Amino acid sequence: MNWEKIDWTALERLRRAFLEGTAGQRDYWQSESDLASYDQTFAQRIGWKWDYVLEELKRRGWAPPRGALLDWGCGSGIAGRAFVDHFGVCSATSLHLLDRSPLAINYAAQRARDKFPSLPVATTRPEQPAVLLLSHVLTELKPEQTEELLRLVGQASATIWVEPGTYEASLTLIAVRERLRGDFHLVAPCPHRERCGILAAGNERHWCHHFAPPPPEVFTDSNWTRFAQLVGIDLRSLPMSFLVLDRRAAPVLPAGAIRVIGRPRLYKAHALLLSCAAAGVRDLRLNKRTLPKEFRRLKKGQAATLQVCQTDGDDLLEIQASL
């Protein structure tokens, strides 16, 4: 990364647009310099979220259907590049980049061509995408635009959708999940395909969100410290919500699989884990005396969010595997 070329004034302007909720009103890219500065900073943080999702998919044995890869609302193109980084150039017949901004499309296309010279890169919409990538688009869409986007999701064989981990974004993705779960297999984050447990009475205060880990080196880099101070963010926190849909059968999870939502709540002698399973969303208690090693992992933030557990009522008796 070349921090000397960062346009800090542009980053401040972009940050204001994101915070004020005005980013969806018009094209906010004013120059290629805007995109290059964004790509080295904000987009990297989004890329770490994509790494989190894609690494889990690979770990669980999921492979994308081969065909056209479409990065819709591509911005600087970080989602498409992350996907090809993880699954390889041969995972797609072509990469298609679409955005309302011609500047963004051209920038993303050039970055992709430079990085993957053997992969055909297009700036047109494929007739039927094999994989659709959606990244941080909900906050910039009007209801009618979201409806149009869902029609596109319905045409794709698989969709990977990553959004900020806000209450509003999570509930919107849950609504998408409920609308499409009859047509698609739910690969992630859901460990089941029943009605979302967040929607049950009594769970109104909860939302489905997770935290991606940043690379350790950002905490010792003065440039990232300057960026964090400028835009007012905590480098340690990368909250996100995501949804992975596939028309093909999803990798089967073992019996007892749960997804831990949000952060565990740690107390002196136990921790409470908000867990999602086919039976619903509920708190599970992990007692320090019963599972001391797992309790230490929780304190260090090292516990997996997808686990296979043995329970007795609301008590965790054993963590049998991390997925």
Task: Explain this structure.
- The chain contains nine helices and 13 strands.
- By secondary structure, the chain is α/β, with parallel strands linked by helices.
- It folds into two domains: 3-246, 3-Layer(aba) Sandwich (Rossmann fold), CATH 3.40.50.150; 257-322.
- Strands 1, 2, 3, 4, 5, 6, 7 and 8 form an eight-stranded mixed beta sheet that branches. Strands 11-10-9-12-13 form a five-stranded antiparallel beta sheet, with helices on one face.
- Helix 1 packs across helix 2 and helix 3 packs parallel to helix 4.
- The longest helix is centred in the N-terminal third of the chain and has 18 residues, at 42-59.
Question: Which helices and strands appear, and what pairs or packs with what?
Answer:
Blueprint: H1 8-20, H2 32-40, H3 42-59, E1 68-72, H4 78-87, E2 94-98, H5 102-115, E3 121-122, E4 131-135, H6 143-155, E5 158-164, H7 167-180, E6 185-188, E7 210-211, H8 222-231, E8 239-246, E9 257-266, E10 270-277, E11 280-287, H9 292-299, E12 306-312, E13 315-322
Parallel strand pairs: 1-2, 1-4, 2-3, 4-5
Antiparallel strand pairs: 5-8, 6-8, 7-8, 9-10, 9-12, 10-11, 12-13
Helix pairs in contact: 1-2, 3-4
